[in-house]
Design goal:
Length: 243
């Protein structure tokens, strides 16, 4: 009986060891499949809340947007959640001025975000109403995630506003239908769950609101992305500003 005791004592440790090995293998798979530093953040953003953040996707799309818009990237407005993070990234780019518009109150912003708000670089405003900027204040406007939370009633007002405050066009990043579940925290901030619409729905809506797609910019972006094998996790639409 004494010879059986070591085996019986070892079995729990063996089970724990197998669990730990499995956990390390899963973590290793996630990190290896993400492709490094920026990819790590993208992979984690996909896991959290069961979906993808289009605001985080801007970091991946930025090199291709620069190739498409060139000098038009010198004065950029970002509209959407996590605007402080997007603006901080844009400000690191050479010859780029950036501003941000958060669509809801920032209750738990960090020191960097509070500094950007204090300086007036990032503002908080309800995008269901006219934007607090003059016409053609920015060369390019990039909006991510925020439009997914608006009903068509408010989109009718917000989309023309985005076209009004831009001079060289605006870019819309939107989630794919069925792509993610909405977290309770997001619902409390926006007041409603995200409505993720198909590309055909968006195109019809652009026509209804008399907004014109920028086909040249769309083709340039697709060509630049395909050369590097980049495939966005979000739908990306390139639209013209109001003339």
């Amino acid at each position: 009986m004494g010879s059986l005791n070591p085996k019986s004592r070892a079995s729990p440790f063996l089970s724990i060891g197998l669990v730990l090995v499995g956990a390390f293998l899963i973590i290793g798979y996630v990190y290896s499949g993400s492709g490094g530093s920026n990819g790590d953040k993208a992979a984690l953003s996909r896991l959290e809340g069961g979906g993808v953040s289009c605001s985080a996707e801007i970091n991946q799309a930025l090199p291709y947007l620069k190739k498409v818009y060139g000098d038009s990237m010198h004065k950029v407005l970002h509209v959407g959640p996590d605007s402080c993070a997007v603006v901080s990234k844009l400000l690191k780019e050479e010859d780029t001025e950036a501003w941000g518009l958060e669509p809801y109150d920032l209750d738990d912003s960090d020191a960097n975000c509070k500094s950007l708000i204090r300086k007036g670089i990032v503002r908080v405003a309800d995008i269901k109403f006219p934007l607090p900027y003059r016409s053609k204040s920015f060369s390019l406007v990039i909006v991510s995630d925020a439009l997914d939370y608006l009903s068509p009633r408010y989109l009718n007002k917000t989309l023309p506003e985005l076209a009004r405050v831009s001079s060289d066009g605006f870019v819309v990043l939107s989630g794919y239908p069925g792509q993610r579940r909405v977290k309770v925290a997001e619902m409390s901030k926006f007041g409603r769950p995200a409505k993720l619409r198909s590309s055909s729905w968006w195109i019809r809506f652009f026509v209804q609101t008399r907004l014109e797609e920028n086909e040249v910019a769309t083709k340039k972006f697709e060509m630049a992305a395909s050369k590097k094998g980049y495939q966005s996790s979000c739908q990306i639409f390139h639209l013209k500003s109001l003339s």
